[in-house]
Amino acid sequence: MKKLFVFAFVALLCLTGSFAAVGVSSPEPVSAVTTPSGRWSDYAASSFAGGSGTSTNPYEIATPAQLAYLAELTRSSSFDTYYRNKYYELTADIDLSAHQWDQSIGSTTASDPFSGFFEGNNHIITGLYGYSLFGRVYATNDAGTAAESKGQYIRNIIFKNFYATSSCLAILTASGLDVSGIVAYGTYAEGASGLINTANSSYGITEISRCVNYASKETDSIGNHVGGIVNFVGGMVDIVECANYGDLTTSTRSAGIGGIVGYVSAPGAPQLKHCANYGTIYAQSDSCEVGGLCGDGVNAREITITQCLNAGKIEASGSKCYAGYFAGSVGRNTTITDCCVYSTTSSLTRGTDVSYESVFYGRYFTDKPSITNTSTMTSGSLMTVRLNQGGDYFTYSSSVFRGAPYLKFIYWESYEG
Description:
The chain is 6% helix and 39% strand. By secondary structure, the chain is mainly β.
């Protein structure tokens, strides 16, 4: 059913750390996708709009050609010398619909990653067709090797009417930096899903915060794991105040699919805090792991889910599929604490060919999870109290999402559906 809504997105400003509200209208769904002619790499500018790359005078990007110029720079020998760990900012909305986005900012291979500070200023990037906006993004020192922490970030970008054709939308691989304020409305092609494909801690702990996915992922028979925010997590990754509203579907065998995270690999130790899923998460293939927050976590070293909400439908169709309101499967040292399932909008559909441990997770490996103060509830006000312990993150209204709590930095003016 079609949803119409307007929200104000509160995001960190580049220098002050204060909050600003920006109103964004939901675009109409893309009914047909036309491949743009030409490639942006052939139309790159030769300079930025202004700036010197410092924190007080960032390089300014005001046109699609200047954004393509940054992608070109990350593949040049001069990037390490002159442009690594510099500051960049969008100073206008960017319309990429004229040509295909054929190369990311930062290579999609192990060489030539982007490392720096990118402030979107809540500008809208419209019409991205092709690769993710960023490729590999690492927190590195000026020599290009792993850094302690320089506080690198990518933040406050709104994607609209995109058609992502390769892996994901925003970042192919994020390691050691902060990613915040990424919002997505659009369409994923076959084999693509999520705002970020891979988040790991090879270059330090990665934090993902205040990111929202409104884009739905239709049946995917050639892709792999599917997450509304992140497809793969490896290492130490903190995911805070993120939400998925998109309906996600996969028909790939042995896939992990989750509203926030699709799959957690062997070294993975994600912390999910104050996150919420409102979409339908559906796998229609064999041996899948389906969860409202996390899909396949059976190989994880540790998963921590704290003060999170599932208000969406979880459905598993196919033999040997495991499904739960919060996770399809979990590994060692998993905790689910102070979490809620909103029974008014949630439901859990699972096959009868396997034995399930709990409604909150499908199965566990090695260690049985610790579940504390977590339950299915009918009262939006009581859920909000539980989810807000120690802070003020969620609110609720009887007229918004049928009374389900929602994160306060998303202000809903209307909802239909």
